[in-house]
Amino acid sequence: MAAEQQRQTGDALITSEDPNHPANLIPSLCAKFWTLGWVTGTGGGCSIRDDDLVYIAPSGVQKELMKNTDIYVMALSEQDPNHNKINQRTYLRSPPCYKPSQCTPLFLAAFTRRGAGCCIHTHSQWAVLVTLLLESQGPGKDRVFEINNIEQIKGFGRGMNKTGNLGYHDTLRIPVIENTPHEEDLTEYLEEAMEKYPDTYAVLVRRHGVYVWGDNVHKAKTQCESLDYLFQLAVEMKKLGLPWISEVEQIAPQRT
């Protein structure tokens, strides 16, 4: 009886007619991301924080077929920040047929360290290619992606607790961390990158993909879209021998 009551309580957390409810929004977002090639072959994921409740896409599910009943739910305040292993997490709801996402501790880092409302992880080919291009430049030049004087840079905020967005002439910087055999082991390196680059809204993982977060779903999604655009542009620029960092004369005043 207790187990049945617990199941019903958990199911109530993911049952809503509202399309913007996190349990409904995560499947619709992942289906969209699948069409973009961001979450191919069950890779990638998404998590949304609604106050203290955290909704997470599961591991191993075909992202274009995901349903609200596949979603994990946890209380952020009940998680031990010193435990990054997924088997040490407690959940308010666990779907019976899947495993918790190995991305979970990285999502939680975005929520606890940046106050994010949404975190997206993609396996975008453009993100992977950018990390390979940086790698080819050699040690010391492969730790951060930088680009400036491109209009789409305006899609990014200036940083945590800062107002406004970056401008056309500003330089966007995205740190790069090395990949690990198990995704959950990336957590400490992601957190180190957050400390070193406090204004970043994303971290690239070499030969793997990218994590992008935002204050809410709208900001996380649009920043992820803007970043993927810039990654693709950067790859094409490299083919043409065009530099990512350039000197462009400012012909009009900067307005905030």
From TrEMBL:
Q: In which pathway does it act?
A: Amino-acid biosynthesis; L-methionine biosynthesis via salvage pathway; L-methionine from S-methyl-5-thio-alpha-D-ribose 1-phosphate: step 2/6
Report whether Cytoplasm shows up as a keyword of the record.
yes
Keyword annotations for this protein, in alphabetical order, are: Amino-acid biosynthesis, Cytoplasm, Lyase, Metal-binding, Methionine biosynthesis, Zinc
Where Zn(2+) is bound, by residue? 121, 123, 208
Q: Which residues form the Class II aldolase/adducin N-terminal domain?
A: 24-235
The record's EC number reads 4.2.1.109
Cofactor(s) listed in the protein's UniProt record: Zn(2+)
Per its UniProt entry, which superkingdom is the organism in? Answer: Eukaryota
Give the family per the record. Belongs to the aldolase class II family. MtnB subfamily.
- Functional note: Catalyzes the dehydration of methylthioribulose-1-phosphate (MTRu-1-P) into 2,3-diketo-5-methylthiopentyl-1-phosphate (DK-MTP-1-P).
The name of this protein is Methylthioribulose-1-phosphate dehydratase
Species in which this protein is naturally found: Fusarium flagelliforme
